[in-house]
Q: What sequence folds into this?
């Protein structure tokens, strides 16, 4: 196990973390501000991926695909908010889970009707198709590096938006006391729709960027949604900073666990057992992390409320 | 209790105590397959392949009118079980078929075949059903699960590779896959990795793989997992330096399209391909493209063969299914022209067939597809047949 390999795996972990952050940022804002559990967040990710893949195929330009995915996902998100979710804010979490689970089925079926049941093709943009040696001797896919950089840029943008602008102030206010900002005359309905649109656009961006790496297929948002929920629970519900830290933690623990647990276990057990147990432990690692964080800090690392 | 009644019914029927249902005017076939959600393209291809044989016969198989009842299991074992109960009890189907996944097959098939209904598997071939739990009413027209992996093990060994990195999801079929590969490949193992079922990101595995410096990679990652892995493997720049090998499950037409050039040139093992030369296959491929406007996959070929196997047996008994042992004997003979050519059943009702190596290439229309580049096994039989006592 060389230092080079460890470094490379850390990069892999960061990249997964950044991807999770894009999804978690939107989900945690919606959860924190509107107190809404939105299981359909993964569907917006799927919509982003499908729109990006289709536009990229039509125009031959990945960038255009990416640019189309953002408004498409945002519009889909805002439409969902206005049509259904708005009526669920006052209801119990169980009702919300039920309704947004229904939305998952709706989106999956809709995508199947429009695009068919088969996965569709999306390639890495030509300019980013090679590998670079950040650390000499360890070629790293340029596209994954671009994802890391985009993620960092988005995190910086969200930081400025939330801490330095008026909208950000309202978002923060909304996260800590929803009734109060309504009482102060802020148009809460509009704020909710905007926040939802922002979250949806970020999910769409994540989907579009995931397209060239992952299979663009019906149901692609569900697996990653579970990880996203783990991220926001670890980070503290409602906190974008928590989402960033949580996402990077989950990305790193998951990747490093998969990469090194079987090898480490080989030191104490025979190879067959080590591989089997290692693989199982690695897939549990993030949940163990979540449990540990919750014991230490029951409301997550950076709770948004008071 | 329910099972007991079924069993009693079957015994009574077999003994001629109950009047056999009127069969002169046709038979009923129940198809349970996956038509929605993840992996639905496999079920759709099986259904369409089966349907094609039915359409070619004008609604008949082997000259006997067939009513086909299709139901979607959504890839859920409990749903498949419910549908099977309904088909056996209220629809009173004579034959069942269609299941794609081994875990669903294990939930449905043993009860169905014990109850006296015939089951023709067009895909799933779990080892239990080929060995200890085999049943006289169960026939698999595709393969036993290990077969294609065994072929790739043999091929990789034949090519002289001696330090192979092997990878599969951490679930029973994944473990069987690597066991099957190692049954015929006896060389060095650079790494044996079990990934999470449904995993999307393989960056960690690919980095570790590169560091292990193998001379070849064998992987079994069906469905979307394979799409993810193939794309990421090519993006990591490894496709040119470390050759990939895998079973046909990651290289059928529904996967090659979304994967694109990342799959170009990769070798994979299959019992069927569109370019196998025989009259049945030529007619199948041409008619399938004409009917559905897309290329058939191996799953479609298996659905088609399942229908034609049933047709051959129905023709032999002239549509009279009241004598189950006569129908069973006719199935055992497999007197139909399989689209894969050489085909017969072993004692455990699983195929004895040839297995080929295919390579992904871009055809004259610019579409990615496979061509056969060699034959690995002739008359290959599964490793579990000896455990089967009927």
A:
């Amino acid at each position: 196990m060389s230092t080079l390999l460890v470094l490379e795996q850390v990069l892999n972990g960061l990249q997964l973390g950044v991807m999770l952050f894009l999804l978690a940022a939107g989900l945690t804002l919606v959860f924190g501000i509107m107190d809404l559990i939105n299981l359909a967040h993964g569907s917006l990710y799927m919509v982003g991926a499908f729109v990006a893949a289709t536009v990229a195929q039509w125009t031959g330009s990945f960038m255009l695909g990416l640019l189309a995915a953002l408004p498409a996902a945002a519009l889909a998100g805002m439409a969902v908010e206005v049509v259904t979710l708005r009526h669920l804010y006052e209801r119990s979490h169980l009702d919300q889970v039920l309704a947004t689970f229904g939305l998952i089925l709706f989106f999956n079926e809709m995508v199947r009707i429009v695009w068919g049941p088969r996965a569709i093709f999306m390639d890495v943009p030509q300019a980013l198709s090679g590998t670079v040696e950040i650390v000499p001797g360890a070629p790293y896919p340029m596209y994954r590096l671009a994802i890391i950089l985009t993620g960092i840029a988005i995190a910086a943008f969200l930081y400025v938006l939330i801490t330095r602008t008026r909208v950000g102030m309202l978002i923060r206010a909304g996260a800590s006391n929803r009734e109060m900002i309504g009482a102060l005359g802020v148009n809460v309905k509009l704020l909710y729709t905007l926040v939802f649109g922002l979250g949806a656009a970020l999910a769409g961006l994540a989907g579009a960027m995931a397209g060239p790496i992952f299979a663009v297929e019906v149901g692609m948002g569900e697996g990653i949604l579970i990880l996203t929920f783990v991220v926001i629970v670890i980070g503290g519900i409602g906190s974008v900073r928590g989402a960033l830290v949580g996402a990077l933690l989950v990305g790193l623990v998951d990747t490093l666990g998969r990469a090194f647990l079987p090898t480490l276990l080989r030191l104490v057990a025979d190879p067959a057992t080590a591989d089997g147990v290692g693989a199982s432990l690695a897939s549990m690692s993030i949940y163990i992390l979540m449990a540990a964080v919750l014991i230490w800090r029951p409301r997550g690392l950076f709770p948004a409320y008071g | 209790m329910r099972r007991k009644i079924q069993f009693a019914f079957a015994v009574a029927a077999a003994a001629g105590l109950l009047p056999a249902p009127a069969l002169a005017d046709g038979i009923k076939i129940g198809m349970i397959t996956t038509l929605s959600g993840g992996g639905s393209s496999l079920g759709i291809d099986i259904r369409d392949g089966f349907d094609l044989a039915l359409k070619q016969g004008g609604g008949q198989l082997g000259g006997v009118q067939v009513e086909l009842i299709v139901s979607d299991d959504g890839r859920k074992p409990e749903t498949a079980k419910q549908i099977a109960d309904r088909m056996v009890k209220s629809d009173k189907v004579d034959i069942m078929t269609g299941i794609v996944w081994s875990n669903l097959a294990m939930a449905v098939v043993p009860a169905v075949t014990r109850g006296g209904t015939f089951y023709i598997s067009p895909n799933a071939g779990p080892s239990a059903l080929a060995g200890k739990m085999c049943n006289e009413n169960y026939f698999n027209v595709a393969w036993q699960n290990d077969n294609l992996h065994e072929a790739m093990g043999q091929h990789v060994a034949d090519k002289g590779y001696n330090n192979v990195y092997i990878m599969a999801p951490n679930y029973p079929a994944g473990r069987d896959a690597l066991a099957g590969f190692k049954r015929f490949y006896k060389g060095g193992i650079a790494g044996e990795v079990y990934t999470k079922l449904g995993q999307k990101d393989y960056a960690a595995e690919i980095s570790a793989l590169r560091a292990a410096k193998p001379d070849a990679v064998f992987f079994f990652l069906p469905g979307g997992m394979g799409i993810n892995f193939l794309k990421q493997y090519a993006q990591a720049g490894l496709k040119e330096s470390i050759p990939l090998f895998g079973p046909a499950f990651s290289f059928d037409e529904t996967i090659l399209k979304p994967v694109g050039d990342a799959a170009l040139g990769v070798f994979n093992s299959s019992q069927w391909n569109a370019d196998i030369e025989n009259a049945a296959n030529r007619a199948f491929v041409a008619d399938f493209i004409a009917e559905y406007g897309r290329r058939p996959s191996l799953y479609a070929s298996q659905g088609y063969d399942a229908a034609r196997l049933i047709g051959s047996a129905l023709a032999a008994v002239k549509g009279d299914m009241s004598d189950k042992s006569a129908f069973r004997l006719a199935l055992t003979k497999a007197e139909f022209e399989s689209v894969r050519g050489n085909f017969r059943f072993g004692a455990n009702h699983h195929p004895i067939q040839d297995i080929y190596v295919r390579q992904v290439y871009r055809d004259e229309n610019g579409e990615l597809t496979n061509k056969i580049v060699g034959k690995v096994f002739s008359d290959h039989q599964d490793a579990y047949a000896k455990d089967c006592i009927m």
